[in-house]
Specification:
about 190 residues; mainly alpha; about 0% strand; LAS1L protein
Length: about 190
């Protein structure tokens, strides 16, 4: 009798450490480290091609927009177009898998995957309407990156890195809320 070997999945990254390093690099906020993580994702994409997870691809596109924004090399209109393309692709790609033979409204699909409806509305404006303000595109990017971190990256990590960050954010929110209460008391 032959023993069955566990199935192995071939991936583009070298191992868990590289995956974790890229995730931390993408979300760290340091544009130099983010660029290094983006370069690594590009290498993964060249190895993995169309098998690249959509969430990784979308995260990289959105982080690339933030890096370009912080560089100061692009004009406001160019940044709106850059953020806009990344946001439109995110909404389209993430909801596409839920689309059935019958067309389902994007708002309903977004609700099912817990994407804020205003992000879908922003996508609609970018696609069919007048271009929104840069500030709204930046906010959309931040919200979507946070959604990707919570919905995809933290589940892939399987460690406490993201949970620790959320605990720190909750502590900070509590401190800010207490500060607001103290300010109200002084008034």
């Amino acid at each position: 009798r032959k023993r069955l070997r566990p199935l192995r999945t071939v991936v583009a990254w070298r191992g868990r450490a590289e995956w974790d390093q890229v995730m931390v690099g993408l979300y760290c906020g340091d544009s130099r480290l983010q660029q290094e993580a983006l370069d690594r994702v590009s290498a993964w994409k060249s190895r993995y091609g169309p098998k690249m997870p959509l969430a990784v691809d979308c995260t990289a596109e959105l982080i690339r927009c933030k890096v370009l924004d912080s560089s100061g090399r692009l004009k406001s209109h160019e940044l709106i177009l850059s953020y806009g393309l990344a946001l439109v692709r995110f909404v389209n790609l993430i909801t596409e898998r839920k689309q059935k033979m019958v067309s389902i409204p994007l708002r309903q699909l977004a609700r099912e995957v817990d994407i804020p409806i205003w992000v879908v509305d922003l996508r609609h404006e970018l696609t069919h309407g007048k271009l929104p303000r840069l500030a709204l595109c930046r906010k959309g990017c931040d919200v979507v990156l946070d959604w990707l971190r919570k919905t995809y990256w933290s589940r892939q990590l399987g460690n406490n890195l993201c949970e620790q960050r959320e605990d720190e954010e909750e502590e900070q929110e509590g401190v800010e809320a207490n500060a607001e209460l103290d300010n109200d008391a002084w008034e």
